[in-house]
Design goal:
Elements lengths: L1 E7 L8 E7 L7 E11 L1 H8 L8 E2 L4 E8 L11 E4 L10 E5 L4 E2 L6 H21 L7 E4 L5 H12 L3 E6 L2 H9 L4 E4 L5 H8 L5 E6 L6 H6 L1 E9 L13 H5 L4 E3 L3 H4 L3 H16 L7 E6 L3 H9 L6 E5 L1
Parallel strand pairs: 9-10, 9-12, 10-11, 12-13, 13-14, 15-16
Antiparallel strand pairs: 1-2, 1-4, 3-5, 3-7, 3-16, 5-6, 6-8
Helix pairs in contact: 2-3, 2-9
């Protein structure tokens, strides 16, 4: 069948995103074909597009979408045609009208969750889940720092932390975004454009610092994040919105309190079908309990993926963005 898909033939800025027409084959053994109804837009997509995370070219792009199962390969017994499903860990190629995936890499969308919500929740929700339950296992009463708390991942983190009785200190770059984070459950918010983040964190924690900082910003916040940690604390730097962290002198970790730093990736935390199923079950359970929800504040046609990337990288978005094929 013939479909339209956004592809990259070279790496670079948003202008390298091209709308191509492709022939999509029938699903092979163990695979399914999904007709997309909503596609998630995430910062990792910009890393693939720019070449920060290299892909063999030419390539599709996008890791997250929701839709309807319209064809089954041999041996698939866990799904049927017409099922509503979503995925958030690839394989790449979600920016398209349809996609072929292994049956074990998708999750059924529960009743009461829309396709758009599922497409916007999967990758972001799965990210928060592995960060909060695996990278650093939070417990009730913990106090944490989460950067970019008004973004798509940040809003879910604020809600999930509140549900876990965790005190989340969120940072954002404007009073408007700070208010969004507060409404989503952040116990404290810091406007980094006019407040000293380290001083405020020390004030909030009685001078101790926090045991863990979750940082999806990268270069611009790296040393600040270290300075917010308590001795032997962990910095989980899980994204590069401001650029990658480079040129680190490991001795700084000793000087600042025998600190730990990890650079985790969702793909490593859901590499097996079993780990993926456990993660997505927790995400949809949190949705079913109304512990987390997602605000979809930007919608774009598939052909407007370039503008979606421009808005995301220009920090002109709040909540989640989706492409509508």
């Amino acid at each position: 069948m013939s479909i339209e898909a956004i592809r990259i033939h070279e790496t670079g800025g948003p202008g390298v995103l091209r709308l191509d027409t492709l022939d999509l084959p029938d699903p092979g053994p163990g695979q399914i074909r999904i007709r997309h109804t909503a596609i998630g837009v995430n910062f990792i997509d910009t890393y693939h597009r720019s070449g920060l995370y290299p892909l063999p070219l030419p390539s599709g792009i996008g890791l997250e979408a929701a839709g309807i199962v319209e064809a089954l390969g041999d041996g698939v017994t866990t799904l049927k045609e017409g099922d509503r499903v979503a995925y958030g860990s690839g394989p790449v190629g979600a920016y398209s009208q349809a996609h072929i995936l292994p049956a074990g890499r998708v999750a059924r969308i529960p009743d009461g969750v829309s396709d758009e919500q599922a497409a916007a929740l999967m990758l972001k929700g799965m990210t928060v889940r592995y960060l909060f339950k695996d990278t650093y296992a939070l417990k009730a009463g913990d106090t944490i720092l989460f950067h970019a708390a008004a973004g798509g991942v940040g809003q879910i983190a604020c809600q999930w932390a509140a549900d876990m009785a965790v005190t989340l200190i969120g940072t954002a770059g404007s009073d408007e975004k700070c208010e969004i984070a507060r409404q989503k459950g952040a116990a404290h918010v810091i406007n980094y454009s006019r407040e000293n983040v380290v001083e405020r964190v020390r004030e909030i924690t009685g001078g101790r610092g926090v045991p863990v900082v979750y940082d999806g910003v990268g270069k611009d916040t790296f040393e600040m994040s270290l300075d917010c940690l308590a001795p032997r604390g962990l910095l989980a730097t899980f994204g590069n919105a401001s650029g990658p962290v480079t040129g680190v002198n490991l001795g700084i970790l000793t000087q600042k309190g025998s600190l730990y730093v990890t650079r985790p990736s969702l793909m490593h935390y859901v590499a097996s079908d079993e780990d993926l199923a456990a993660n997505t079950a927790d995400v949809f359970d949190a949705v079913a309990r109304s512990a987390i929800s997602i605000d979809i504040n930007q919608r774009y046609a598939l052909a407007d993926a370039q503008r979606a990337h421009e808005d995301l990288e220009g920090r002109r978005t709040t909540g989640a963005s989706v492409l509508v094929p």
